[in-house]
Design goal:
One of its GO terms (biological process) is trehalose catabolic process. This protein is α/β, with parallel strands linked by helices and about 525 residues long. The chain has 16 helices and 20 strands. The strands form five sheets. Strands 11-10-9-3-2-1-13-12 form an eight-stranded parallel β-sheet. It binds 1-O-alpha-D-glucopyranosyl-D-fructose (TEU).
Amino acid sequence: MTFKNKVIYQIYPKSFLDTTGSGVGDICGIIKKLDYLAELGIDMIWLNPIYPSPQRDNGYDISDYVAINPDFGTMADFEALIAQGKKRGIEVMLDMVLNHVSIEHDWFQKAISGDTYYQDFFILRDEPTDWLSKFGGNAWAPFGDTGKYYLHLFDVTQADLNWRNVAVRNEMFKVVNFWRDKGVAGFRFDVINLIGKEAILQNNPVNEGKAEYTDKPLTHDYLQMLNAASFGKDEEAITVGEMSSTTIENCILYSRPDRNELSMTFNFHHLKVDYVDGQKWTKMPFDFAELKQLFHTWGEKMSEGNGWNALFWNNHDQPRAINRFIDHKNFRIKGAMMLAASIHLSRGTPYVYMGEEIGMIDPDFTSMQEYVDVESRNAYQMLMASGKSPEEAFAIIQTKSRDNSRTPMQWDDSVNAGFSTGRPWLMTGNHAEINVAHEKNGEIFTFYQKLIALRKSEKLISEGTYKAAYQESDCIYGFIREFSGQKMLVVNNFSNQVSQFELLPEFVNGEILINTYSKFMANELQPYQSVAFIV
Ligand code: TEU
């Protein structure tokens, strides 16, 4: 598979570029920026859902799988994007939300009107389990006046689909093939490790019931069926599963080539190291030792198990990494470059989230009214219900809200950051300094160009094994890559201080492949310095 030397750029279409003045980004805006993306050097763009949706969860509540939300444009616009992308060597990856569907979808409407064929498309029970929704509250809601309840692991308007029903599976395979026929070369499968629910659903008060529906054995069966019925035939297809609360063992099985399931997996363990007791809606400095241990464990086990990681720091569900892991007030640029080096030189396929390539940071929102995300607004209420003051609750929302990464792409320092001539659906962040016009030939952007190019030129990076290094250091994250006799040591200083370290003897005479500073001072790393040595 060729995905090992590819770099994928994630676009949140709603916030990328608005060409109509509606305040919402659109497909024509993406077409307008294809040359910018080609200059960055990326190979594929992953678009968050662009299908008709009530937008309760910003498109992850789909009401029609095989159409384009008119807010984003037309099917002709989408077909033009595919064609224009291919001219520049940029393929398109679409987001497949196959675990659940909007209650405004025709299937749910028919089901709730009494159509028993469609009632079996959903997970209905007379007796709900004690599971909780990932967006807070009960995971079950009354199914009309039938006296039954339907399962919704996310928002109450997102009804989980019954994958045990072959008719559901066939409908899902048809959806993927519809978009493959349009020329879509990649698919990101939303929370796909939740589709393997068993017939008997058990109560489980531990961890809100996650163990009862996550990574269940049937998931692998369904993925192998999906693979065989659609993309499995395409040598060039790239597929990635978003795996919620998953394990390394399952991610090896999901992504090992001989299993014919997916190309690779997203896991989120490294983005929970600033969670108190695993709880998202809390505040604490990130735990570097835990972060490093997770990277090493996942890196080595996936390498040994022939699995394949999707490597990322940012996406549309996470606050920006610079705010979480870097002293960005003093070292935004060097910190952004170090974060990039720490994944782009590692083993897996790197994802660049829009704005990461210019060092975008969280907005400085000052009131709860500026946050629109359903998960954040639910959390704010839950935090206050748990006894937090409005100020304490708001301070937590400010650090963890998904809106932090969903603010409009910052193209220039004009009004609305050049994103829209209308009122943006979400207010822009701090774009006076941090914008493409200002940063495009700056250190961060050119460093990303270099990293992306290296992945294509160096099999040591795209194919090499992964081994941990500097495990004992309290500020350096280091690893060794190896491929057909060549070795690379990558050291990343996660500190805002100069850090002492001993270069491993075998690399003392090595050549420096990449350095985020102009110089390397023997045995010390500058604040947030990354250096790669090869022998
Ligand atoms: O996210 C899955 C998921 O669990 C997220 O809710 C994430 O774990 C959480 O926001 C982190 O705090 C996927 C999509 O990426 C997300 O945007 C959707 O809201 C969700 O599924 C439901 O489709």
